[in-house]
User: Which sequence fits this backbone?
């Protein structure tokens, strides 16, 4: 009744193969060798005890795996993250600006509710008083956190009876969509990417430090550790210098993190992306710093995927497009369309096939500027990021 330890993956697995044999032997030891164990009451009891024992072993194996941060989930994973001063990204509400109209002088308290045509509830963020003009612009946040869509012109109903004197509400623009709580898979990936944040001067620590900046989605790092200029992945690097192309995050926060985590005397570079130059005074030394890095050029991608009808649970073309966009916009920082990551039609097709067990007949991709579909991977430079949209995805059902 032991555990097997699978060296290749580090997963603890309960070995239940001998359980029935061992339980049967226990019965024979206690009730005598003449006990009939393959039929009747004894057989029923042996099977029941075997199931209980196997279930216990599997539960203990699951608990053992939660000690491993590479496989932990839920609160156990949160505990592993806390050891490195990390936490998963929390869920946030969708926010939207809307115009309220009504009787001048009407006070509407924060928390008052308006609803969209789809039934999603939004609460008023702060107290407002309708001015003499009878109209005022204010902000609402979705009552439920997560990816709640609020398109322009849909927040139009006053809920819960409203407030006397409050007459209408309407949003001219789309809301800023909130986020769901970060998944276990994404949090485990982030932990690996940020585990070196306690160090400084190494490539791992620099990468970890930049991923620690709020809003950073993906990045590419290159360095020149020699005393002469070199070209790395089509980027000219000065002697003893680093290059980063970063997607997301605030410019100054990124620049300050680079100054903190780089080794002393290391220079910075711009490359073929959208060049950034950020100057500031170091809080440690008081020196003026100018930090260079890039934002990625966006490479628009068209996708053509062919799926066999009736081969899966997929019912609509829209579902297939949604599955592709889920992969493209994956919250996991090393998955989907990220900075410097090549566009693979195979990975796009696999994401659709795995999620819905569908029969993907073929998948082709092309840069919009080329408009020549191919089944081969499209190379993306380290200062580029692929991107697509629903309108650039063509689904063929056969």
Assistant:
């Amino acid at each position: 009744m032991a555990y097997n330890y699978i060296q290749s993956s580090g997963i603890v697995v309960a070995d239940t193969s001998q359980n029935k044999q061992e339980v049967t032997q226990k019965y024979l030891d206690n009730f005598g060798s003449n006990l009939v164990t393959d039929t009747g009451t004894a057989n029923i009891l042996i099977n029941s005890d075997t199931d209980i024992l196997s279930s216990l072993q599997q539960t203990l194996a699951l608990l053992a795996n939660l000690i491993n941060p590479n496989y932990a989930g839920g609160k156990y994973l949160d505990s592993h993250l806390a050891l490195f001063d990390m936490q998963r990204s929390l869920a946030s509400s969708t926010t939207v600006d809307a115009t309220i109209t009504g009787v001048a002088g009407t006070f509407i308290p924060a928390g008052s509710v308006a609803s969209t045509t789809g039934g999603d509830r939004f609460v008023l963020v702060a107290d407002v008083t309708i001015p003499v003009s009878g109209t005022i612009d204010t902000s609402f946040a979705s009552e439920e956190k997560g990816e709640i869509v609020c398109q322009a012109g849909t927040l139009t109903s006053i809920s819960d009876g409203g407030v006397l004197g409050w007459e209408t509400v309407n949003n001219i623009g789309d809301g800023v969509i909130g986020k769901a709580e970060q998944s276990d898979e994404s949090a485990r990936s982030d932990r690996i990417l940020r585990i070196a944040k306690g160090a400084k001067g190494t490539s791992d620590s620099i990468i970890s430090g930049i991923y620690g900046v709020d809003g950073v989605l993906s990045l590419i790092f290159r360095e020149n550790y020699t005393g002469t200029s070199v070209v790395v992945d089509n980027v000219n690097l000065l002697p003893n210098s680093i290059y980063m192309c970063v997607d997301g995050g605030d410019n100054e926060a990124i620049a300050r993190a680079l100054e903190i985590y780089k080794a002393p005397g290391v220079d910075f570079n711009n490359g073929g992306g959208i060049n950034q130059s950020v100057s500031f005074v170091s809080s440690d030394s008081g020196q003026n710093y100018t930090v260079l890095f890039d934002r990625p050029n966006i490479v628009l991608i068209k996708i053509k995927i062919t799926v066999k009808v009736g081969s899966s649970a997929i019912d609509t073309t829209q579902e297939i497009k949604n599955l592709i966009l889920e992969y493209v916009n994956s919250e996991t920082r090393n998955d989907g369309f990220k900075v410097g990551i090549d566009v693979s039609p195979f990975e796009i097709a696999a994401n659709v096939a795995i999620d819905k067990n569908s029969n993907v007949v073929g998948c082709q991709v092309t840069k919009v500027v080329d408009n020549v579909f191919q089944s081969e991977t499209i190379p993306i430079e380290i200062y580029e990021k692929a991107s697509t949209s629903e309108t650039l995805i063509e689904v063929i059902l056969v």
Notes: The chain has eight helices and 21 strands. The first strand starts at residue 3 and ends at 6.
